[in-house]
Amino acid sequence: xxxxxxxxxxxxxxxxxxxxxxxxxxxxxxxxxxxxxxxxxxxxxxxxxxxxxxxxxxxxxxxxxxxxxxxxxxxxxxxxxxxxxxxxxxxxxxxxxxxxxxxxxxxxxxxxxxxxxxxxxxxxxxxxxxxxxxxxxxxxxxxxxxxxxxxxxxxxxxxxxxxxxxxxxxxxxxxxxxxxxxxxxxxxxxxxxxxxxxxxxxxxxxxxxxxxxxxxxxxxxxxxxxxxxxxxxxxxxxxxxxxxxxxxxxxxxxxxxxxxxxxxxxxxxxxxxxxxxxxxxxxxxxxxxxxxxxxxxxxxxxxxxxxxxxxxxxxxxxxxxxxxxxxxxxxxxxxxxxxxxxxxxxxxxxxx
Length: 352
Prior knowledge:
Elements: H1 21-36, E1 62-70, H2 74-81, H3 87-100, E2 105-115, H4 120-136, E3 140-148, E4 158-169, E5 184-189, H5 198-208, E6 216-217, E7 222-223, H6 224-228, H7 236-244, E8 250-253, H8 258-262, E9 271-276, H9 284-293, H10 297-303, E10 308-314, H11 319-328, E11 334-341, E12 348-351
Parallel strand pairs: 2-3, 9-12
Antiparallel strand pairs: 1-4, 2-4, 5-10, 5-11, 6-7, 8-10, 9-11
Helix pairs in contact: 1-4, 3-4
């Protein structure tokens, strides 16, 4: 029996299965230029190599610090509005914050972009946001994966994830081990939800509140879509400035789980944090969400950052120095609590 394909059968190519190599080539053309704009002399390979090469030079006893994350259902807002140039920046800044709290300097970033039907301009906009954030954080966008997978995603939707690698000298790794009772808890403001709580926020705003992405809300001073797509802040500069000055005992990135679940991650076992409600601005968007959902306080504080994107712990005797540095960086720190002795299961206690 012959195994050759019958002449009567139709000729099928990759594009007939929904994958366009030509569109992928266009996307890579955009990406190559965007990524190259983030390169430093330490990057030894170009986009298109099988692996990214980075020369780790100038370090004495480095510890590599890594993190991987996604943007979650904030992507749904990007799909809804057709605005794709912010979620890439969200992804980079989120990952940068996750390693900065341990004292690490970002070195390079890699992304994964998966989509059902590739649109080169959408990929370009997403990667442009990544490239912009990488440049702002002095981090090289060294490579990634763009995967076109028909049938895996709904039309017009995609998935996004990123991995960051940073380094810190071993003796300068921030661990929180020196925290003690009497230390001051400072909060740096968020500009909105950042990248957490979007599943509930979308339900409350679009289903319960009846808003659309284009709805202008006086309370927010912008549309719902604009509010939800505000870019996740990077706190690299204030963290590094305090760390360089020898003032920072610990830092906690306030993401999913809020202050309640994230601050304990950097606290020694013999202490707890006493947080003062009302000591910072909770932002109108959080007040609106809480009201729409009639949310219990505990659930509210474990779902949203509530207006605090980063927590810094400093010694009481060093507080003035820390505040002076932060204000020089145009930050608006709030004294939101203190560290107290305590071995209870409740590591964070709220009071007024």
